[in-house]
Amino acid sequence: MSELMLMKGNEAIAEAAIRGGCRFFFGYPITPQNEIPEYMARWLPEVGGAFLQAESEVAAINMVYGAAAAGGRAMTSSSSPGISLKQEGISYIAAAELPCVIVNIMRGGPGLGSIQPAQSDYFQATRGGGHGDYRLIVLGPASIQEAVDLMMGAFDLAEKYRNPVMLLGDGVLGQMMEPVSFPEYRGPAPAGKSWVLDGAKGRPPRVVNTLLMDAEDLFRHNLALQAKYREISKNEVRWEEYRTGDADVVLVAYGITARVCKSAVDMARQSHIKAGLFRPVSLYPFPIKPLKELAARVKGFLVVEMSMGQMVEDVRLAVEGASRVHFYGTAGGIIPASKSVLQELQAIALRSEGGAAQ
Amino acid sequence: MSVVFKRPKALSDRPNTYCPGCTHGVAHRLVAEAIDELDLREIAIGIAPVGCAVFAYEFFNMDFAQAAHGRAPAVATGIKRVLPDRFVFTYQGDGDLAAIGTAEVVHAASRGEQISVIFVNNAIYGMTSGQMAPTTIVGQKTTTTPLGRDPARAGYPIRLSEMLATLPGAAYIAWCSLHNPQQIDRAKNAIVKAFRMQVEGRGFSMVELLSNCPTNWGMSPAESLKWIEEHMIPTFPLGVVKDVTAEEVKAGA
């Protein structure tokens, strides 16, 4: 463990990426993530890497495609509208099974939206986002320290599965400052990449391709991708629980919203509501099993998001009707206040008492 | 007996899938010959476009990436930044390069990216069966300009080589044609020169090859070659548009 440093989220993410092995960065400016490319521009060349400011997000993600195909540890970062532009390339990268890391510091939408924090790209991130059947590994940190920890392992994770990994943060996480320490990087020994394009010297040519014109071939490729996603779902589920042991109502939230919800849990406990928090860390794969187990013993869930209701659908799918799933969401950069969450919890508690009396 | 003509090492032993009479085959061969001559095959990484040449990775005998439509110069940039000592080239058609991929090629040239681009301009969308291309000439009939390209509605053909030549990052840009043996020979020399520019680290290089599309032009191969000469060359005048080494010679003299 290194000493504690006070760092801005975006800069800490960039530093963690470099420490985690990132050597190539391609990006295009957009608020509120600009400190990531700026940090990379300054520090990547110092470690023998390369930074390039692309002409567009579309070009940037295709540079990542090329860099990853050539065996480089490459990443890009952006914010919501920019991530929409990258979807074409992300689909190709997932199809070609190339490893890379994408950071989305979410802002409000739809359209140009705002530059304020949001969590309304959850659908886009967890459903693939572009065309075709594919998934990203999506990680949603709730603190700068957690963003650092996840980022430092992100390239290893991407290479393990030859799949894009997305770090899904929000404008708060990117812009706030927190004390952070950088663990020593202990990645696996670099494995030979049998698929890298580096010149057909003394070996048959290699092709990185996403076109499979034969119907059976493309079907087989899709089945193989699905098998990989099942493997990811088996191995890479991450979540945190807080005071759920005896909870009647469990809040479900990720990212910065989960921090607000943690305070709301403590406040609720003081007013004798047995509340707990379930915080998914991996958004894909979604922690379906532990939520389902929780559903068997709690009275209800309250999903809180800085969106109009996206992750709530995954919670409903996970609990399969075994428990009531309530929702409280904000948009436009409004961060849910712990007091508002508490009020929602109180209303749910009242309703369930009323229900019991009937 | 001596061998006077054989398949270049840089071409694979597979029949190509281009239409009979299409000059893509000639263009592939010239690129492969140039790669063989400069001994680049084992350090070459090609990038295939979306369009008729999408299967180029099948026909060239070297490492290849297939790119999204128009993005080949961005993919090439990513590869070259990771492996600066490799030879990286894209092979793109007019729709890929001069319409959907305009931004990517302009900025690759502007950055002086050390890559080479083979630009096959046949003034039409071949793969999607004959729609207007950014390089369709005024008056030319396509399935989306059924009465001929009318500039009032559909604008003018883009002379991309001329555009890119204005950029300081571009080291070598040449307009060539594949309509007769003499021009094919010239095109070959231009491709060798363009590739050499990259090997010498002089910057971005591109050769635009005026090509045919007998299938979608609705002509015999022979008629189509004549059509290049009579109708395309007046719009895309042949010649070296930019050559930084020639400028050096001039400056020295």
CATH classification, class level of the largest domain in chain A = Alpha Beta
Indicate the radius of gyration of chain A in whole angstroms: 21 Å
Tell me the strand percentage band of chain B. Answer: 15-25%
Question: Pairing-aware structural class of the strands and helices of chain A?
Answer: alpha/beta
Distance between the termini of chain B: 47 Å
Tally of DSSP helical segments of chain A: 12
| Outline of chain A | globular
Structural overview:
The complex is a heterodimer of chains A (358) and B (253). Chain A is α/β, with parallel strands linked by helices. Chain A folds into 2 domains: 5-235, Thiamin diphosphate (ThDP)-binding fold, Pyr/PP domains (Rossmann fold); 240-357, Rossmann fold. Chain A contains 12 helices and 15 strands. Chain A has helices spanning 9-19, 35-43, 57-69, 80-96, 122-126, 144-161, 171-175, 215-235, 255-270, 288-295, 311-319, 338-357, and strands at residues 5-8, 24-27, 50-53, 74-78, 100-106, 137-139, 164-170, 177-180, 207-208, 239-242, 249-252, 275-280, 282-284, 300-305, 324-329. In chain A, helix 3 packs parallel to helix 4. A 7-stranded mixed beta sheet of chain B has the order 2-1-3-4-8-7-9, sandwiched between helices. In chain B, strands 5-6 form a two-stranded antiparallel sheet. Chain B has helices spanning 24-37, 56-59, 72-82, 94-100, 102-110, 151-154, 160-165, 181-199, 214-217, 221-232, 244-252; strands spanning 44-48, 63-66, 87-93, 116-121, 124-125, 131-132, 170-177, 204-210, 239-243. Chain B is globular, with a radius of gyration of 17 Å. Chain B contains 11 helices and 9 strands. The longest helix of chain B is centred in the last third of the chain and has 19 residues, at 181-199. Classes of the chains: A alpha/beta (358), B alpha/beta (253). The A-B interface holds A 24, 26, 50, 52, 54-56, 58-60, 62-72, 74, 88-89, 92, 197-202, 205-211 and B 12, 41-45, 47, 54-55, 57, 60-68, 71, 74-83, 86, 103-104, 106-107, 111.
